[in-house]
Design brief:
400 residues; alpha/beta; six-stranded antiparallel β-sheet; six-stranded mixed β-sheet; 12 helices; 15 strands; 28% helix; globular
């Protein structure tokens, strides 16, 4: 394996939504499974709040930019029965030699547009770069992060700065079919693609252009085409070269699929007419192939719109894309599709699977599924991960 972005190796969360207190270690490709409402999206959004704090301000605008659903303080803070609601929400992100911690405050009775920094610490190799508390003298602007200001003094390549940059660039992608088709605008455009899938055509075009220079882009493009088994070829072309319904809008370029089973001159489809599964495959491939993708990102419900076997193959390919890349992004995924698990290469420690569930009192808990001797034996006996999950042997299943 070649170069690696500075990885987020450990996350701590306290007092956020259904998470009273959690700590878990991340790999390169991380998959979270669990019942609806177990807290999977809360985990992704907690890192999103940490990302906003690392960027210097936590308000609705900064949260939306990262794909976090804004909420009132009374909804962001845990509020379990028979316990007091905590005054602060706390988040910590660590790499091998750096860490960034923050506790945020916003009153529930009279909430402010922006959260205040109650405490904030940025460390490198055990040495504090910057720190604050509500007792700091003089008291800095409580709504402005100090680490974001101090970051301008760090040299490029500094490990602590790389951690902060990875956190600041984090985003949760949740593609939707109308946005992927170009029917509705994306409210949060990013590079290389919007959080809801906006700009898919331009993003695919850039990946296709880069195939001659990048073996990684070429491999991902070939794998994506193989997963869309009805397509003979995929290109991005002027809309005038493809029959496009007027309902599709006036985009200058569209994704062009050539159907292998239809007659020539009758076998061209745009992204507006193609199956939604093909668009979701291309969306994921773009994030894996583009050098402009965040070094740390999440996809919520990565299996959305996909056939179970296609989901399995996509996960298998994602493992290969990430593991073989010279500079792989760190990815967090949630899924409800059991067959997604059968595509994971858990023998490689960089690929990690977590079950997410709630205790009898409603607290979200996370457990890592490791490919230990028990799983190896069950695998040899014909038990797949999907079967183990559905049968309740891994945890993270609905209690219905």
């Amino acid at each position: 394996m070649g170069l690696v972005h500075t990885m987020l190796t450990k996350v701590q969360i306290r007092g956020f939504k259904s998470i009273e207190s959690l700590e878990f270690d991340l790999g390169l490709l991380n998959v979270f499974i669990g019942a609806n409402g177990s807290g999977k999206s809360n985990l992704l959004e907690a890192i999103g709040v940490l990302s906003a704090a690392a960027s210097g301000r936590v308000d609705d605008e900064s949260l939306l930019r990262r794909g976090v659903r804004p909420g009132l303080p009374q909804l962001f803070k845990t509020s379990f029965a028979h316990t007091n609601q905590p005054p602060h929400i706390f988040f910590s992100g660590q790499s091998e030699d750096s860490r960034y911690d923050v506790a945020l405050f916003n009153p529930t009775s009279n909430p402010k547009p922006a959260w205040s920094y109650h405490t904030e610490t940025w460390e490198s190799q055990g040495h504090r770069i910057v720190g604050r508390s509500n007792r700091s003298k003089p008291l800095p602007n409580p709504e402005a992060g100090l680490a974001a200001l101090k970051a301008v003094e760090r040299s490029p390549g500094d490990p602590a700065l790389q951690l902060l940059d990875a956190l600041r660039d984090y985003a949760i992608f949740t593609p939707t079919t109308p946005t992927l088709r170009g029917l509705v605008p994306d409210q949060q455009m990013r590079e290389p693609i919007g959080l809801s899938g906006g700009g898919l055509t331009a993003a695919v075009l850039k990946v296709l252009w880069s195939r001659s220079k990048s073996a990684q882009a070429r491999q991902i493009s070939n794998d994506a085409l193989a997963m869309i088994d009805w397509a003979k070829s995929i290109t991005a072309s002027p809309s005038s070269t493809v029959p496009v319904s007027n309902a599709a809008g006036g985009a200058r370029h569209v994704i062009r699929f050539r159907d292998r089973f239809m007659k020539e001159k009758h076998n061209l489809l745009s992204g507006y007419d193609a199956s939604e599964g093909a668009l979701y495959v291309l969306f994921t491939a773009v994030l894996a192939a583009s050098p402009n993708s965040p070094s740390l990102f999440a996809i919520d419900n990565v299996d959305h719109g996909l056939n179970p076997r296609l989901t399995c193959q996509l996960m298998r390919n994602l493992c290969d894309w990430v593991i073989s890349s010279d500079l792989p992004p760190q990815i967090l995924l949630t899924t409800h599709n059991p067959l997604a698990l059968d595509g994971l290469k858990l023998q490689d420690d960089r690929v990690r699977l977590f079950t997410v569930s709630r205790t009898t009192s409603g607290r979200t808990v996370v457990s890592r599924v490791t490919f230990d001797n028990r799983l190896q034996k069950l695998s040899k006996d014909g038990w797949t991960l999907s079967r183990l999950w559905v049968m309740g042997h891994l945890g993270g299943v609905a209690n219905v």
